[in-house]
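Workshop exercise sheet. Pairs work together: one partner reads the sequence aloud, the other fills in the structure field after running the prediction. Swap roles for the next sheet.
Pair: D.N. / O.F.
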Amino acid sequence: MEPQRRCAHCKRLFVPNPRVKEQGYCRRKGCQRARRRLWQRRKMAQDRDYKANQRRSEQQWHTEHPDYWRHYRKAHPEYCKRNRLEQRKRDAKRRERNLATMDALEANKQIKTGTYYLVPPGSNHLAKMDALGQKVVIIPRV
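Structure field:
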């Protein structure tokens, strides 16, 4: 009996092809699709030219098929309903994250926004400030 391996996608045991030394996926359609998707994701992250080429190809397809999504939504109302529900969840999650971030930023804010001078206008000590060990005084511009 030939040695078996476990598929990286479906986790089922399979007999690998002897010509493919590092085979990690079985021959099922869904597993092969997952293998190609992973390869493409890695390729897009590592190869700028490949990513740009894919983007151009996608833009060309959209130019040639401008009404695709309109027709798809019309033919698949269940898709639209599910997408609306999922979008509401994503929006709510985004609002929660943004509120927490904005609250945290407001608490740490110490200096008011505006234009400030490190030394009074007309002073020529800008280059010598660190060398002289002077304190930096922030003066709000009036």
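Discussion prompt: The chain has a mean pLDDT of 83. What would you look at next?
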